[in-house]
Amino acid sequence: MADIKAKDVAALRAKTGIGMMECKKALVEAEGDFDKAIKILRERGLAVAAKKADRIAADGIVDILTVGTTTAIIEVNTETDFVAKNESFKTFVKDLLTTIVNTGVANVEALMAAKFLDTELTVEAKLQEMIFAIGEKISIRRFTVIEGHVGTYIHGAGSIGVVVLFNVDDETAAKAEFVEMAKNVALQVGAYQVSYVDKESVPAAVIAEETEVIFNAIKNDPANAKKPENIIREKMIPGRLGKFYEANCLTEQEYLKDDSMKVGQYIASVAKALNAEIKVAAFARFEKGEGIQKREDNFAEEIAKLTAK
What's the pTM value of the predicted model, to 2 decimals? Predict the structure, then answer.
């Protein structure tokens, strides 16, 4: 049996972030071979990750990285807020963003197969190490990459992230006034969730469906039952569609920092001041855990299980 020294165990723990006892067991099994011990821990990490696969990871963080004119936004989920605040986890997410920008991968599947930073590990293998070290399910849920001049915003500790892409020339994009405006528009998207950039972005099928919903709502109102159809469609529906656009289109919303103007008017005012053309081209808004059904813990049942004899 190999002589396992405390300094070797400590060195393995420092490299892997895994507990001292697990590191010692791995070194014993590997007969003191450091690299073999790391392999053993990674393999055990895969087993640990498999056991955690059916857990619900609805917490986590959204983060953003811009390098030159390439911007990546990612959502990585954890089971608890405690892990989401862990510095090693946050560093892992930053490193994932760097990997995405450096490799140019297009989806999560490709990312998992890519090399993690400049290491020999794949992202999937690194993820399993993180799961084993931290002890929770971690899930790389989604990311997107946007090329061009953008404004970005992250709310709080990463609960919401926004990237807004602008059609604008390089010279204008470098100006402080544009940078401030772009950040303000990203803040707007973070504060008020919207589906479309502007009226022109709304699909015709969506407008047609909304029109019929409004028409039927008006007809079902006894106060409007006798109104002619042409009056409803030509006079009443356009006004109510305006409310739909205000609720669902970014440029039609009231600007949060000055409710006397719409977001589109705010952008136009900055464009005029800079004597430039500035248009919103697209945006991405990630909110951590959106659409994931969170687990509802029954603490009475949990205590009963723990105290059961």
Answer: 0.77
